[in-house]
Amino acid sequence: MADYHKMWEDLGMDLETHDQLCEVLPQAFGDVYLSQENRPESMDYYDFVVSEIHGVRPAELVEHQKNGGKVFGTFCVYVPDEIVFAAKAIATGLCGGSQFWVPGGEKVLPSNTCPLIKASVGARLDRTCPFFRIADMYVGETTCDGKKKAWEILAEDVPVHVMDLPQMKREKDIKAWAEEIKDFKKVVEEVTGNEVTAESLGESIKLINDKRRALKRLYELRKNEKLPISGKDVLLISQIAFYDDPTRFTQMTNKLCDELEKRVEEGVSVFPEGTKRILLTGTPLAIPNWKIHNIIETSGGAVVCEEMCTGARYFENLVDETQTDLDGQIDALANRYMGINCACFTPNRARIDDIIRYAKEYNVDGVIDVNLKFCSTYDVEGFLVERELKKAGIPVLGIETDYTDSDAQQMRTRVSAFIEML
Ligand code: BJ8
Asked: What pLDDT, on a 0 to 100 scale, did the predictor assign at position 111?
């Protein structure tokens, strides 16, 4: 990896602690990823991005700032990146998926807080992630209670704009979300000094839709009986989608899909025959949280679809590209984003319908409902999800976990027993 210490120092990072993270990540990545056999060649690109995760992309963001551009950090798939890109700014995901950042978060948050929130707050306050240092503004949202309160703590250290996400999906809620998007547009315009026009918004709608189309194309390939790519690799791609330059990401993902289509034609599979097909549902798996995929795929299973924010919720449904004026475009954004089915909504039957539909489309043998500890919305919803899946005759296993490895052995035992039973 190239030496980025100067950039990290300029970003005010805690270099000593950060070096510890840089030491463990390549080992973890090697163990989980590079040990796989017969990976598609085009995975080289994503491997490179991960090997330089705190270098290459942060350097591009810093360059963008040097040229007068702004960077917005986001934590949730309801926040419309289109508005940010339409103001010539860059949006980047900021969710933390490593235990490394959790103790930092626990300095200010109760320990019985979801690890995703603790890691995100820890990454900021401990100054150990360049993305968290670079963002000029964080964009929070009123999804779960833990996040809502975490914004107040983060706002003492960095400018935060919070979007008020409705928790129901009535007509008036969709209108309210359109109003929130309008307010967000104003904030972005003020921070960047650039106006969002119908033309620039039209372009960014197309830009982000193209990324969604590429991801959808990738997922379609996983419907094949012979799987041309592992679930682990697709997870990595989904995680990188939140950080990477959207144009380049789309191009590289389409290139990968070309290779995978050839594999499908030639009948190449990365799994032996008889491998059980698993659908994952639940809370997001922020980078570098690869635990559940790794356990499944080294226990006789293959992950073929994720009904998660690091998965189908991120790319399903396009924004209507036919609108030509700002009001129409913002309504189109509100409609598309309010179509996401997060457990913070009530009721949320559409999520269960999605899971059952995916289970059929991807021809799965079983579903694993995997949720982060202390995430009460997904935990409570898990009861309904699991009951409805059983009713539909789909085997399901519920797992609650965090970012530590302390439960890995126990998880492996449960996952293996589940897969054997399928
Ligand atoms: S749309 S899932 S990205 S809120 S932080 S809710 S795990 S207790 S992340 Fe999320 Fe948006 Fe919904 Fe998706 Fe639970 Fe943790 Fe809250 Fe979480």
From this structure: 96
Distance 282 CA to ligand 1 centre (A): 9
96 touches 122 (CB < 8 A): yes
Contact 148, 142 (CB under 8 A): yes
Nearest to 389 by CA among 414, 352, 420, 422: 352
DSSP output for 83-127: HHHHTT-EEEE-----GGGHHHHHTTS-TTS-HHHHHHHHHHHTT
Q: Which helix (H) or strand (E) holds 141?
A: strand 137-141
**What whole-number distance in Å separates Cα of residue 334 and Cα of residue 327?**
11
Could you read off the pLDDT of 262-295 as tens digits, one per residue?
Answer: 999 999 999 999 999 999 999 999 999 999 999 9
Our CA dihedral for 245, 337, 368, 223, rounded to 10 degrees, sits at -70
- Say if residues 222 and 261 touch (Cβ distance below 8 Å): no
Distance 181 CA to ligand 1 centre (A): 19
Q: Is 366 in the pocket of ligand 1 (CB under 6 A)?
A: no
Testing ligand 1's pocket by substitution, the residue of 147, 149, 400, 401 carrying the most ligand atoms inside 8 A of its CB is: 147
Strand order in the sheet with 71-74: 90-93, 71-74, 137-141, 160-163
Tell me the pTM.
Answer: 0.97
Q: Does ligand 1 come within 6 angstroms of the Cβ of 117?
A: yes
Helices (H) and strands (E) in the chain, counts: 19, 8
- The residues facing 279 across adjacent strands are 305, 367
Cis ω before 159 (30° cut-off from 0): no
Respond yes or no on whether the N-terminal peptide bond of residue 130 is cis (omega within 30° of 0): no
Each residue's pLDDT tens digit, 365-420: 999 999 999 999 999 999 999 999 999 999 999 999 999 999 999 999 999 999 99
**Nearest-angstrom CA–CA distance, 235 and 26:** 17
Ligand 1 centroid distance, CA of 114 (Å)? 9
